[in-house]
User: Fold these one by one.
Assistant:
Number 1:
Amino acid sequence: MPGTVCHRARRAPRPDRARNGLAAAALAAAALAGAAPAEAALERPAIVRPAVKAYAPGGVHLPGSTVRLAYSVEDPSGRARARLALYQRGVAVATRRPGFRAATGARRTWTVRLGAKLLGPVYFCLWAESPAGTRSRGAPLSSCAHISVKVRWQDRKKISNGCGGKAWDAVLAVENYFGNSGVFYQPQVRRSDGSVKVPRALWTVWFTSACDFHDAGYRGSTIEDPTTGGVRDYHDWSRRRIDDRFLADMRRLCRRQIDRSATTALRDCKNNYRYDVVRTFGSLFFDADLRRRGTQASGHRANN
């Protein structure tokens, strides 16, 4: 119509062009900021690793006996090679290296003879490698299972030195002499008529067996317990639990070796300094990770 101004309709941008424009703007902004293009910033694909599992055999085993160990290996490729080892305190005492086999997660077994001189703690560990060369996470200790190998009570001195703790050889004997036993004084007690109710006496108590158990606990061994006829398997005990059991063992020995009428001596014996010493300094000698060599300050056992 005359006098009417016609406005040309503005087309909306096509979605694909809009996306391209935004992408170009983002790349330009990244370039100005000194950043790499978005494509280069994409994360690399996660490395696919074999998965392994070691199964604890259960029960208590004697040195020199044969045990069947179960394990499984799984890999997306369907094949992998496992590496198996038996460790005593982090040192390999037996190994097996089978070649590439099916790795579908099915259980396999390894029959191995335990050394006649094994004292524990003993662990069965494995890892695996895929055809592409990737290893299971945490190799060579990708998965581990504990094996309870019993130390006979008559062999306890192979893993314990009594109440002396770690020391130089020159002073160990003296330290044990004073540490293995304690002397507790009982004053005389009279009745109201003046007669003697409890005589004055010195009571000697030997704590060696309690200290032997305590050393086995810090080491993580499985040891025969003649007081119960069973065994004590310390592989998963925390330091506090071992120390508390040490106190209970000492108090049991006090009750056995001191007459209950000697109340003062019995009280002092039950609250002697040995427990305070292990609570104060025991963390320095506690083995928290039984799968590795040496004494570990931290690991699967709480050093608390």
Number 2:
Amino acid sequence: MSDALVTTERRDGVLICHLDDGKANALSNDMITAISGAISEAEGDDGIHAVVLHGRDGKFSAGFDLTVMLGGDMAAMIDLVANGGELCRSIYAANVPVVAACTGHALAAGALILLACDVRIGADRPCKIGLNEVAIGMTLPDWALTLAGERLSKRHLQRAIPTARITDARGAVDAGYLDEVVAPDAVLDAAVAQAVEFAGLDAKAYAVTIRKMRGDAVATMAEEIAADRSGGLAAQV
């Protein structure tokens, strides 16, 4: 599959999604729809054992599209944030493993995408990773707080969220955004190799285990996203 923002390829039972908007890989509605479609494609194909989300060189994702977030249209902003929540929820609940090939910067919603992925391999290079919302006058929606609480190190929650601490790639491993770092030119191959290993897992057992482990959090996120769409988010910004 190919479109202006996401190009996919299949390699050894892995669906690789190359994210590239030519800029900062902002999460626009079109980008969200393209990634969501790739996840759904993988879940519905018995020949796919895992997914890799691969950023453009130096930039995994800078977060939600600022033209919407700062554009003054509250309805459009709520819709975009809720759609991003649905994307993160679908990744976190996916019945196939999702591996992030984090090529560099991952801020705000970009960092949330990392938190939603099962395994996160990052480039060992100067970059900024973290949840910077409070520093720029925004608050995280409830669904994002739920996800962050599930995945970030408990030692780092205070610094990561209320005080908006941004870290480099190695610090992101300690905080819980990443699982390991490798040389920048090895990120994609390392992520694909990890994804290929998942072919040895029993697909049904994996899916059932994910539902048991994450079902409560996924259901909570769904409720929080629905509340955002009903106007709850407007009261928080």
Number 3:
Amino acid sequence: MKIGLPKALLYYYYSPIWKAFFDALKIDYIESNDTNAKTLILGKEKSIDEACLALKIYLGHIEEIKDKCDLILVPRIYSLKKTEQVCTNFNCLYDLVRNTFPNIKILNYNIDIKHHHNEKSAFLKIGKDLGFSLIEASRAYNLAKEVENNHYKNEEKKAKIALKSKNTKILLIGHPYILKDNLIGKSVTDYLEKNNITIIYSYQVPRELIEYNCNKISSKIHFTMNKEGLAAFNYFKNKIDGTILLTAFPCGPDSLSNEMLLRKRKNHPLLLLTFEDLTNNTAVITRLESFLDMLKGGIHL
């Protein structure tokens, strides 16, 4: 038995707990390769034109990995809090993949706090579907949860170290599947690092402080996963020199949260980069050059 993990979308939120869970159960898994131009082409062929760039990339990863494993892990996540919701792509991900790839076998779980389907019960379902007892699956989940918590603590430590740097410090705000993607985020991080910029990432904000710091921007955020970016801005803004927002077109939740940050930034230097296609990053580099020049010159637009 080998489980396929597409390296896109939810992978960048949940891979630490997924991999630790399968390791504890001694289940083999395989990850798709980093996103490349071929991945995007394959994804476009499987997508409707209106799909966001991140979803097109995800479907490309499914296409690349589907013949290399027995099952592909495709969760359905609707709500992580009773009064909130996640992106509609995550709501329908299971159905979308099942209909787009009717011949593949899917390992699925459902998280919907609004209707009393929590994370632990979701992982217990995975264990049951794979033939493990409730006790075995529960033990694996507890171990995996500890690994996940340690992962985020390590990210927080990295941010603390980065903030001590004497270089120009820039906060990158975006979903992890944007910031960590080999085609989207890497073009930005590579350029910044070549110019001796110290990078802090929005996913490095302390987990326990997300709600508090997000409420300083707005107390009425409906989309749970956008809270991280808003919280990171409020938490880091006085410790950095500038902020760059990365988003994939046409993300509805991002368009709302980005507008909030643009209105709340005051004199804080902030650049919004929206990625619709990745055939040429010249425009991105040009805008990054201009932004860094503005920072050096003390210009805040």
Number 4:
Amino acid sequence: MEYRLIEGEVFPEVWEKALKVCWREGEKIRTDYDKKEDSLSKDITAMMVVHEPENEPVYHRAGFPMGIEELFSYVDEVVKGTRDDLVDKLGYTYHDRMVNYRDDIQNEQGINQIDYVVEELERAGYSRRAQMIIWNPKVDTVSEGEDVPCLQRLWFRVVDGSLNMNIHMRSNDLFKATFSNMIAFFGIHKLVAEKLGIPVGSYCHVADSLHIYGSYFEEVQKTLETFQERSWEDRVWTTEEIESFV
């Protein structure tokens, strides 16, 4: 495996660096989703650290191929639980696992892990126990479908009066999902900080398998070429700019 620490001040900087590193240095590994004609994926284990996550610019124009409205919809799904009513059909949502974690999916009374994290950090900001878990072995290890949680846990700690958050993922599609994941999970970061009444600190995104699928290689190559052709200002959007498009 290839292991990398990738750091920067803002989200688009870190995502762009990660794409370049994985493309250039990623280990060639097969996936469960390859077609015969696909190249092997490129894969690294990465720790991506955003030191000033609230600073502008926040958005990379190439980071969310699904489009702006779909990105905001996904953020609402993770932060506000807008798809929690579909849990029985979908099997899980990240938000439902955060606010209604159940050992047994048939158990009607779940645990609100966001409330737990806030209470634990109010007790002791230095605590090492302030975490939320997403993976549920009783459900996810026996799932017959392909869609089981990539996000595994969220870990929080107050340092120098600010809330730092670490995200841990077993698998992360770097080209088409990682950036939108970052923006959505940062919504949880801000939510917990607001409940504590303190500012956000650093955001750390750990991915055991940060990968570029072989089927995306042509798209990725073209995207990397645009990085050379366009200025930094033409590769990113500020929050004000992106909200003007919605």
